[in-house]
Amino acid sequence: MIMPEWVSWLIIALIVLSLALIGVTGFSLILKNMVEKRTSALIHTHEQLRLNSEALLKSSELIQQDESDIQTLVETMLRITGEVFFDHIVVELCRWLGCNCAIVGEIITGDRVKAIAMVMNSEPINDYSYKLSGTPCEEAINKGYCAYPEGVCEAFPDDLDLINMKAVGYVGVPIKNRKGEAIGILCCISCHKLNLTKRTNEVMNIIAAKISGEIERQYNEKERDNLQNRLKQAYKMESLGTLAGGIAHDFNNILIPILGYTEMLLDTTSKDNSLYDTFYEIHKAAIRAKDLVKQILTFSRQTTTDIAPMKIQPIVKEVLKLIRASIPSNIEIRQEIKENCGLVNTEPTHIHQIVMNLVTNAFHAMEDRVGILTIIVEEVEIVEEPKINKTELPPQINEDIKISGVEHKLTDYKDVFQLIDDKDAFQTETTPLPEGVYVSLTVADTGIGMTQEVMSKIFDPFFTTKEVGKGTGIGLSVVHGIVKSMNGAIKIYSKPNKGSIVRVYLPIVQSYLEEDENTIIRDITQNGNECILLVDDEESVIETENSILEYLGYNVVPIVGSIEALETFRANPYQFDIVITDLSMPKMSGEQLAREFIKIRPDIPIIISTGFAEKVSIKMVQSIGIKSVLTKPFTVREISSELRKVLDNSELHKDIDNSDVDEKDN
Fold first, then answer.
1. What is the 3-state secondary structure (H, E, C) of 458-507?
2. Could you tell me if 344 and 309 are in contact, meaning their C-beta atoms sit under 8 angstroms apart?
3. CA-to-CA distance for 568 and 558, rounded, in angstroms?
4. In degrees rounded to 5, what are phi and psi of residue 558?
5. pLDDT-based confidence at 169, cuts 50/70/90?
6. Bridging pattern class, strands 628-631 and 531-536
């Protein structure tokens, strides 16, 4: 049976439709899968964008926080100065970097750092120091920047301080001065990983530069204050010099009759006479008083005297007598001053300053305890290696004494000298000594002693461990300067709670020459018979000098007052062979009077006598024509010797002038 044509077309249509439906369904499924994949990708991308956005926001907040912390640091540096500056810096650094410890350290020796300011777990730490070598601080100084966000202990296993802190992270930069020299270290230490940024290096170097400027500013302020204090002290010394000058003038006038009359008594009294020793002791005391006044004048005016070979023993003894009253009674002074030491090239004031400074330091180290202050002067020889000449201890070494009611063992005296052989004692010396013979001045105390840190700075100007009002810190630097100028050296031994020994070595320029103790009155009778015009404003001085000159055989015309002396001289100028006049007189000074005498008679020899020889300059003497200057108080030997020298040198001129006068008279 043949199907109708339309049925065939219907079947074909149904088949095509079915196939079309199947294709559409497949395509729909494919399209659905594609949409689902794309949607999933879009969702993932959105989530990633969200996370990135949050990360960027968090990073922005961190940057803002870091900038805020940096701004706080900068504001702190600008706002704060003075001693609290360093303390604030370490606190702000810990807050900025989130670390446990921050240090501003100063390099005090080549291999040691002392903390100027330090904070550990929010607590300030005082008196902290550490060895520089083998630490990340050493690397920071060498490289300019050292950063270990973590693992710092593994990198520096020998740094025990880091190990004890349980450190993990470290960052540090050097503190440099204007010359680019490392003078300190700025560092931070953390017990966890440090979050360092690119700006950490930059910011820490900025802070280090500010710290360097603050250190320099504080140093300059201290230097300025020290200079001002020294200026005030100079004004005080100037006032003291004026006061001492007035006192010395009167005291010298008192000494002139004592010296003069005792010398005449000694010259006329037999040594077998029982009074001879009495006169001799009076004269010796007067000589000591004369030298003492000279020392006081020189020291108070800060003037210098001529450097010459001299024995230091009398000066040491004099200083000890002066300072004895100011040393507490709980301190015993022992001295072993050997007289057979050679001469050193110096001046009295320098030795005075050395002894005064060393003794003052020694008793300050013992003033709160019972102690013994020992001063030894001896001659020592330095051979290939410095060899200590250990002085024998005084015979009472094994005895016990009581000082201020306290039982005290003299073994302390022996113990302090054991420091010389104590390997644990700290030592320092200014310079190695060449071979030769030296005078050794030793000052030892049984005081608190010194640490190695203190020993390393004792010669620095203005360094002192004393409280305000007890020291300026210039004593040992002055001693160092004086000893260095004399080509000597200083060696110090010390140990905490064991005491200190300071030994000053001064090179000997002349061997010891023993003198006859009566040389002070020897050869005083250089007599003469010339006529002397004697001028002074003090009657007691005129009387004494008149007696001395008449005793020596001279004819004397004594005049009290310069105006009266000028009138006497004008009346008969050729009556006199020589004039002796005081320098400081009212109405007309000795200088003015000498000028008037020379106007009247140009050839007249003139001797000026004064207690202030420094006021008579060479220029003034030469311009006026003064022949000599006598320093008061003078001895009979000094005035007799000077008179003969001036008269004998001018004898020829006097004869010539007198012959001219005779010819004119004829």
1. CCCCCCCCCCCCCCCCCHHHHHHHHHHHCCCEEEEEEECCCEEEEEEEEE
2. yes
3. 10
4. -85, 130
5. very high
6. unpaired
Both tokens assigned to 288: 């000591």
Alpha-carbon dihedral of residues 452, 453, 455, 457, nearest 10 degrees? Answer: 160
Question: 496: cis peptide before it, omega within 30°?
Answer: no
Element (H, E) at 6: helix 5-79
Report which of 534, 635, 615 is spatially closest to residue 576, judged by C-alpha positions: 534
How many whole angstroms separate alpha carbon 379 and alpha carbon 507? 10
Taking the CB of residue 259, how many other CB atoms lie within 10 A of it?
A: 26
Angle at 381 between CA 380 and CA 386, to 5 degrees: 100
CA dihedral sign, ordered 627, 635, 512, 336: negative
List the beta bridge partners of residue 542: none
Q: Among positive and negative, which fits the CA dihedral 625, 631, 635, 638?
A: negative
Long-range CB contact pairs, 293-298, < 8 A, 24+: 293/248, 293/251, 293/252, 293/255, 294/348, 295/348, 295/349, 295/352, 296/244, 296/248, 297/241, 297/244, 297/245, 297/248, 297/612, 298/348, 298/349
Q: Mind listing the pLDDT tens digit for each residue in 265-322?
A: 888 888 888 888 888 888 888 887 777 777 666 655 544 456 778 888 888 888 888 7
Query: 549: closest CA among 510, 578, 518?
Result: 578
344: three-class secondary structure by DSSP? strand
Residue with tokens 């001299």: 310
The helix (run of H) or strand (run of E) holding residue 147 is strand 146-148
Does residue 184 contact residue 129 with C-beta atoms inside 8 Å?
A: no
Strands (E), 217-352: 308-310, 331-337, 343-346
Distance CA(482)–CA(350), nearest Å, equals: 7
Whose CA is closest to 185, among 157, 212, 154, 213?
212
Encode pLDDT of 123-139 as tens digits: 999 889 998 989 999 99
Compute the distance between CA of residue 86 and CA of residue 104 in angstroms, rounded to an integer.
Answer: 7
pTM of the predicted structure, to 2 decimals? 0.46
Residue with tokens 């002070």: 520
CA–CA distance, 360 with 352 (Å, rounded to integer): 12
Query: What phi and psi values does residue 376 have, to the nearest 5 degrees?
Result: -125, 130
Classify residue 538 by burial, with Cβ atoms within 10 Å: 0-12, 13-18, 19+: middle
Amino acid, res. 160:
L
Closest CA to 185 of 131, 255, 243: 131
- Helical segments of 184-269, H only: 199-268
92, 222, 227, 237, 299 from 230: Cα distances, Å: 38, 12, 5, 10, 15
Give, in order, the Cα–Cα distances in Å from 317 to each of 289, 335, 377, 503. 13, 9, 10, 17
Tell me 614's DSSP state. Answer: G
Distance, CA of 666 to CA of 662 (rounded, Å): 6
Q: 385-422, pLDDT tens digit by residue?
A: 444 444 444 433 333 333 333 333 333 444 566 666 65
> Within 13 Å and on the Cβ side, how many CA atoms surround 2?
2
> What would the two tokens of residue 106 be?
């100063």
